[in-house]
Amino acid sequence: MISAQAIHLGPIMLPWPLVIFSLSLVLAIAMAKQFSQRFTVSVENWHQFKDSIWQAIWIGLIIGRIVFVSMDLDYYRLHPIDIIKIQDKGFHFIAALLASTLWILWKNWKNTRYVSIIFLVCCFSFSSIGNWGYKKYQQQYQQFPQIELMDLQLKKHRLSSYIGQPTVINLWASWCPPCHREMPVLAMAQQRHPNVNFVMINQGEDPTTITQYLQDNQLQFKHILLDQEGLSAEKTGMYGLPSTLFFNAQGQLVDHHMGEISQSVLDQKLKKAQGKY
After folding, report:
1. For the residues of 66-83, what is the DSSP string, one character each?
2. Could you give the CA distance from residue 33 to residue 51 in angstroms, rounded to a whole number?
3. Other beta carbons within 10 Å of 122
4. Exposure of 70 by Cβ count < 10 A (0-12 exposed, 13-18 middle, 19+ buried)?
5. pTM of the model
6. Does domain 143-273 bear CATH number 3.40.50.720?
7. Please, are residues 251 and 160 in contact by the beta-carbon 8 Å criterion?
8. Over its length of 277 residues, how does the chain's per-residue pLDDT go in tens digits?
């Protein structure tokens, strides 16, 4: 399945930014290969250049993760095991990009500097163009969903009524394991951020099932809404579960997260929604 946010291969979700980067990388390597022949780069130096790219990706991921962790060191001191839980997608993009770029230039400056520069320019250009097109397409999903849903008491609520405060919208279901794991994180965040609306939109389940699930797991949320027809997924383009969207007080989407979210990632995205950075 292909959605506005990702390519869905069964339980695996490939976000479009990752797909765009991967395609840009392949195209940039192909361009660098063409120029390597013009600059008469030896086979040995070409293999060294390609190896440096894969090394740079790993170095970028490691540095990006280290910088991300350092930004919330108090939390990770208390939960050190969470440092290696990279499924939360907690990486500092700029630090990762800078580390990768410097590594490629340093490793290849002596023998293949021109090929390296061409590769980096092509990779950045292709990625920028791809992400620009993706963001243009995404503009239709940037506004607050204009839909009406019912709560557990079958009372109707318009989502637009939450505009005026920073709002977190979470799409979930009780049968979804990563949803289950992140629910306590969201419940605690709701207590720590009373000025933020946490709107938990259940996908396709009945009030009895939801109520029983919340009671069994001792979870309390102020705003629980039912979405039997998948309207919220359709309006936001977020078809994978769990999915979390972050809106500022003006109702503008400032960030989103696909998959299980950790406390540290949640806290940093909440700062964006509240305009703290």
Report:
1. HHHHHTTHHHHHH-GGGG
2. 13
3. 19
4. exposed
5. 0.78
6. no
7. yes
8. 777 677 777 767 778 888 999 999 999 999 999 998 888 889 999 999 999 999 999 999 999 999 999 988 888 887 788 888 877 778 899 999 999 999 999 999 988 999 999 999 999 999 999 999 988 887 776 678 889 999 999 899 999 899 999 999 999 999 999 999 999 999 999 999 999 999 999 999 999 999 999 999 999 999 999 998 888 888 888 878 899 999 999 988 888 888 889 888 899 899 988 877 6
What residues have CB less than 8 Å from 159, skipping those under 6 apart?
144, 145, 146, 147, 148, 149, 169, 199, 232
Of the candidates 200, 260, 206, 207, the one whose C-alpha atom is nearest the C-alpha of residue 232 is 200
For 135, other C-beta atoms within 10 Å of its C-beta total 11
Write the DSSP symbol of residue 147: -
What's at 170, amino acid-wise?
N
d(CA 224, CA 226): 7
- For the chain, where do the domains classified as CATH 3.40.30.10 start and end? 143-273
